[in-house]
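Order emerges. One example.
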Amino acid sequence: MFPPIFFAQIMPPPAGPPDPPGLPIDGFTGVLFLIGIIYGFVKILKNSSS
């Protein structure tokens, strides 16, 4: 009477691509990282000039 399709399971969607290697950098972390690089670069320039 009822077709056996009611007993079938829905297949889950395929897994997405993996994240790229390395640490995930969100907006706030990226800004802090850039400030740290700029601060270090300026500090190196000041030390090399004196």
Q: What stands out?
A: DSSP finds one helix and no strands in the chain.
